[in-house]
Amino acid sequence: MIIDLTDTTSSEIASALLKARRHAGSPAMGMVGTIVVVVDEASHHDAMKAANEAGREHPSRVLVAILRPGRGAPGLDAEVRVGEGIPGEAVLLRLHGELAKVPESVITPLLLPDSPVIVWWPGGGPKVPADDPLGRLGRRRVTDAAATRRASVDFSARAEGYKPGDTDFAWTRLTPWRALMAAALDQYPTKVTGAEVAAAKGNPSADLMAAWLQSRLKVPVEQRNSRGPGVTAVRLFTPSGPIALTRPDGAVATFSVPGQPDRPVALKRRTTSELLSEELRRLDPDDVYAKTLACKVDRDQLPASEKKVDATARKSTAASATAAGKKVVAAQKPADKKSAAAKKTAAKTPAKKTASKKTAAVKKTAAKRTAAKR
Q1: Which residues make Cβ contacts (< 8 Å) with residue 133, sequence separation at least 6?
Q2: CA gyration radius for the chain?
Q3: Which residues partner with 68 through β-bridges?
Q4: Using one digit for the tens of pLDDT, what is the confidence trace for 35-61?
Q5: Average pLDDT, integer, range 1-8
Q6: Within a 10 A sphere around the Cβ of 139, how many other Cβ atoms?
Q7: What pLDDT score was predicted for residue 352?
C-alpha cells in the first residue's frame, strides 16, 4: 500500500502509517528499530532498496530523508509504503527550504519508541557524525568513506571526533578478511616480521586494513596498488614463509600457509544490504574500529620509509623457503639412489639366472659326449 502526502506534517504521516497497518491487517508493530537514511534525490531509490532488503533480517521502520535546502518556502512531502514486499514500513520524506536545516524536528516524532535508531549516510556522511543533528538521534551512525574522494580527510576528522556507535562501511567490508587472517595466526602461531596490503588505488578499506594490522601486530605494514577490485591481497611475512590471502577476481580467494597446500576460500564482495545487515546485528560500540582509526591517523603522519617492510624480513622469508626446498630435495636424493640400485639389482637377477641355466646345459652336454666315447 502506498499513500502520497503533499505539504504534510509528522502527525499526518504517523496517522497514515497506522491507517496503512490496519488496512494490511496487522495493526500491531513487529519492528525492532528505526533506520534513518540521509540521502540525495539521485540515489534514494538504491538506498531504500538496500534498507528494505536488510529489513528482511531485521524488520524496521525505514525513514528516508531527502534534504532540499533553498530559498523556497518550507514544506514536507511524504510517501508511505507498507506491505508489497516491504518487511516493515518505509517512509520517503522530502524536506524543502528552511525545514531541511532542522530535519530532526520531522524525524523525531516518527521514531519507534523504546527501540534503537540507526542513522546511515550512503553518500559519505558528515566529518563528525555524532555532531550532526540526525546523528545525535542514532545509537549507531554508519558512514561510507568509499562514496567520497576525501576518505583520508574524513577519517582524520572522525578519529578526532569519534563517539561510541560510529562506524563505516569501509571497515565493515574488512570483516571476512580480518576473520581469516586472525584464524590463520591461531592455526599457525608464529612471529610476524612485517605485512603487506595490496588494493586498488585510493581504496579506504586498504588504509584501515593496514592500520589494523599495524595496531594489532606492532609491525611495519606496506601498502601497494593493484588493479583491484577492492582489496586484492594481504600478506604476513614470517620466518617460515608468507601467510597470504589473495583475491584477484573479487570472488574467490586463495589462502596460503607455509607447509600446507593452498586452499580456495569464498570471499565475494558483499552488497550494500549485506553490509547494512551486519551493522544491524551489533549495536554495541566498536572499540577495535576506534583504535584502528587512531592508528591510521598516526600512520598518515609517518614518513614513507617507515611504512615499508624491511628488506631483511623479505629476504629471510625467501631464504627460509629456499632452504626448505633444498631439504626436501636432499631428502629425496637418498631415496632416489636406493630406488635406482634396486632397479639395477632387479635387472641383473634375471640375467644371472639365464647365465646359470646355460652353464648347466653345457656341462650336461659335455658329460654325455664323454660317456659316448667310453
Answers
A1: 102, 103, 104
A2: 35
A3: 96
A4: 999 998 888 999 999 998 988 888 889
A5: 88
A6: 16
A7: 46
Maximum distance among all alpha carbons in the chain? 146
The reported pTM is 0.80
Listed residue (258, 288, 251) closest to 184, CA to CA: 258
Tell me how far apart the alpha carbons of residues 53 and 31 are, in angstroms, rounded to a whole number.
14
**Per-residue pLDDT band at 250 (split at 50, 70, 90):** confident
Question: Whose grid coordinates read 630435495?
Answer: 329
Lowest mean pLDDT among 40-44, 298-302, 347-351: 347-351
List the grid coordinates of 99.
Answer: 525545514
- Across the beta sheet with 263-266, the strand order is 221-226, 194-200, 231-237, 243-246, 252-256, 263-266
Place of cell 538496500: 50
C-alpha cell belonging to residue 277: 545487515
Phi, psi torsion values for 267, nearest 5 degrees: -140, 60
Q: What's the number of CA atoms in the CB half-sphere (13 Å) around residue 51?
A: 30
Place of cell 584501515: 208
Tens of pLDDT, residues 256-266: 998 889 999 99
What does the alpha-carbon distance between residue 151 and residue 293 come to, in Å, rounded to a whole number? 12
Spatial distance between the Cα atoms of 283 and 294, rounded to a whole number of angstroms:
21
